[in-house]
Amino acid sequence: MKRNIVIATIAAAALIGGGTATAIAVSGDEAAPANKSSVQVSNDDNGRDDDDVNDTDDNDADDKAARDTGEDAEDKAENATDAKVAKVTAADAIGAALKHKGGTAVSADLDDEGTKHVWDVDVLTNGGAWHSVQVDPANGKVVGSHVDRDDDGDDAAETAQIRAALKGSSVTAAEAAKAAAAKGTVTSVDLDEESTDQAWEADTTAADGTGSDWRVNLDSGKVTADRSND
């Protein structure tokens, strides 16, 4: 790996004087020509420009908007417990479920099944059948699977709506879960196919149990606060 060594003496002087300095970059490869770069240093430079500050403010506002303000101490304690048992991420649980039953993952929820937790992943097969696959959040092993029955007779319409929402989209459920994981521990990801701005919905939990709701764009994977309940 080539590394550049920057002669910093002039730049250091510019820090004191508030001026402009020219630094010479010397390559570790002697055969390569030396490059020059102009370094502008100002007295009020704090390492961040206005755009960085604005981005930080926007992110803070988005994080605040995503928080579930209706939670009490008991809810937060339950959320924290859920987050701790999820050694296997939502994305990995989806991957395990799809290896067991091929198709398209439409949702993944970390459910409390009485005395233990499981990832419950809904998979829509190419033939139109719905399968529920349970994955152990401790080791990623599939512990159960069954076909979901169409008890209310609306599976065909729901399936058509879901296929239409996902047609041409470039972000899968697993990818949405990975994107939302930057906001906290993902405890669920589900397709919102009914809204006009169709997207993946993701729930995350912070270390203190604070829950937040997010939307992940089906095309770009951009994560934004879910303001549907505002």
In a few lines, what is going on in this structure?
By secondary structure, this protein is an alpha+beta fold. It has 6 helices and 11 strands.
Radius of gyration, in Å, reads 25 Å
Average pLDDT value? 78
For the report, how would you describe the main beta sheet?
8 strands, antiparallel
Approximate helicity band: 25-40%
Q: Would you identify the regions where 5 or more consecutive residues have pLDDT less than 50?
A: 1-46
Structure description:
By secondary structure, this protein is of the alpha+beta class. The chain is built from six helices and eleven strands. Residues 1-46 have low confidence and may be disordered. It has an eight-stranded antiparallel β-sheet with strand order 7-6-5-4-8-9-10-11. A three-stranded antiparallel β-sheet has the order 1-2-3. The longest helix is centred in the N-terminal third of the chain and has 17 residues, at 50-66. Helix 4 (90-100) runs antiparallel to helix 6 (173-180).
